[in-house]
Amino acid sequence: MNNSQVEVDIAESKDSREVSLIQRQGELVKIVEALRRVADSEDWHVLKKLVFDGVIETLERQLKSEAQKAEVVTPELYRLQGQLVWARKYADLHKLSEFFKNQVEGIKISLKKE
């Protein structure tokens, strides 16, 4: 077995991982910037108030109602919990942009280690 070939394969693998991390970092930065622009727009405030805030309240009410039933249907409870988590995550664009920003920071740390 040729050990020099193994070292070359490892180096190429490391380089391709680094390139993909840099590409992902660029994509995430664009996502964060876009989310911040949308979050600051008046249109988003209207949508949030009229659509997303109502959805969160409705899901919370449904979840509470389901949990208080004499015979709880566990899959329904889990479904509502999942929808509520999703709605809370995507209804607050500032929180969502922070989530993506943390991913960018994680990539920066990974790149520094390599």
Topology, please?
Blueprint: H1 3-39, H2 42-67, H3 74-91, H4 93-113
Helix pairs in contact: 1-4, 2-3
Written description of the protein model:
This protein is mainly α and 114 residues long. The chain has one domain (3-113). 89% of the residues lie in helices and 0% in strands. It contains four helices and no strands. The protein has helices spanning 3-39, 42-67, 74-91, 93-113. Helix 1 runs antiparallel to helix 4 (93-113) and helix 2 packs antiparallel against helix 3 (74-91). The longest helix is centred in the N-terminal third of the chain and has 37 residues, at 3-39. The radius of gyration is 22 Å and the shape is flat. It starts with a helix and ends with a helix. 3% of the residues are buried. The model has no long low-confidence stretch (mean pLDDT 87).
Keywords:
114 residues, mainly alpha, 89% helix
Proportion of residues in β-strands: under 5%
Our Rg estimate from Cα atoms comes to: 22 Å
Low-confidence stretches: none
What's the order of the H and E elements? HHHH
Distance between the termini: 27 Å
Rough shape? Answer: flat
Number of self-contained structural domains: 1
Question: How many individual β-strands?
Answer: 0
